[in-house]
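Postdoc handover notes: sequence design on the structure in folder B. Input tokens:
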């Protein structure tokens, strides 16, 4: 955590594209585009930062639902500039056979504090959203009782506040606390989530896959931007259509689509993954072996730190 970090979302995103261009250009890129805000930021960054001639090295993986979600961007900026493939073909394929870097838009939700439908609940009560939970911890505990019993809510509040304080990150409002819950507790599982998709769930060793899979928003600069509590207005906005406002402004710099900017909200990307493919792996050991609860429960439990057992 760096309290003096002040780079903007635009600066961080432009730099991320330029850094990946410098370090990962020796193989083609396959960019997953759902039509949503996060994946559209990636394509917008590529358009902003790479010359037209270099776009031949990039394929956009999407499907009909992606186009339905953001048709103007597809027809104005993707179809004329990139090769396009059906994203289901990539998800169903074995990553070992992909001679390309696969780029997706995780863990963007964790940067913005998007935790399912709870942001909608908070937006309905802005006063609650910005309540100082250090002075009024009952407010946070009562909020957690919407999803758990009182005993768990009290424990979870204590864990979140103690954990944030140990990292030096200010967590003074209910939104700060909810953001920290997703940012710190869910980052790794979201980053590694694609290991459960399609035939990749059958992999016995994760090393090759992790080497070739790029989570665009997994960088120190994005994390530092997210931790700067001066950026809350551009993370959260004042209503549901302003969630991820910094990202929407960045997209608008490319597509000038006033409708998308004003009305696009965060929504789940549907029809991209069939959840029946998910294998219940839980962790990766020091040798990059995938361990799942069905086959390796005892080994997983033996690896957990004492306070989790």
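Designed sequence:
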């Amino acid at each position: 955590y760096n309290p003096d970090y002040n780079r903007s979302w635009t600066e961080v995103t432009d730099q991320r594209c330029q850094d990946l261009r410098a370090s990962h250009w020796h193989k083609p890129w396959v960019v997953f585009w759902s039509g949503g805000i996060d994946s559209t930021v990636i394509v917008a960054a590529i358009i902003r930062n790479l010359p037209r001639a270099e776009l031949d090295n990039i394929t956009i993986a999407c499907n009909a639902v992606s186009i339905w979600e953001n048709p103007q961007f597809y027809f104005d900026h993707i179809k004329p500039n990139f090769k396009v493939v059906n994203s289901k073909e990539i998800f169903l394929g074995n990553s070992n056979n992909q001679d390309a870097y696969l780029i997706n838009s995780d863990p963007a939700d964790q940067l913005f504090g998007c935790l399912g439908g709870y942001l909608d609940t908070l937006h309905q009560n802005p006063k609650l959203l910005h309540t100082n939970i250090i002075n009024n911890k009952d407010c946070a505990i009562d909020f957690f009782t919407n999803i758990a019993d009182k005993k768990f809510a009290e424990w979870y509040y204590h864990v979140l506040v103690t954990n944030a304080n140990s990292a030096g990150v200010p967590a003074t409002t209910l939104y700060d606390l909810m953001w920290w819950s997703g940012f710190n507790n869910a980052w790794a599982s979201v980053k590694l989530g694609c290991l459960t998709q399609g035939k990749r769930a059958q992999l016995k060793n994760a090393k090759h896959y992790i080497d070739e899979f790029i989570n665009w928003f997994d960088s120190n600069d994005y994390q530092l931007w997210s931790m700067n509590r001066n950026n809350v207005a551009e993370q959260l906005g004042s209503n549901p259509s302003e969630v991820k406002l910094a990202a929407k402004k960045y997209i608008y710099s490319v597509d000038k689509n006033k409708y998308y900017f004003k009305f696009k909200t965060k929504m789940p990307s549907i029809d991209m993954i069939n959840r029946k493919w998910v294998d219940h792996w839980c962790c990766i050991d020091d040798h990059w072996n995938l361990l799942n609860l069905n086959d390796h429960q005892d080994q997983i439990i033996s690896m957990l730190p004492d306070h989790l057992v």
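Context for whoever picks this up: The chain has 18 helices and seven strands. Don't rerun without checking with the PI first.
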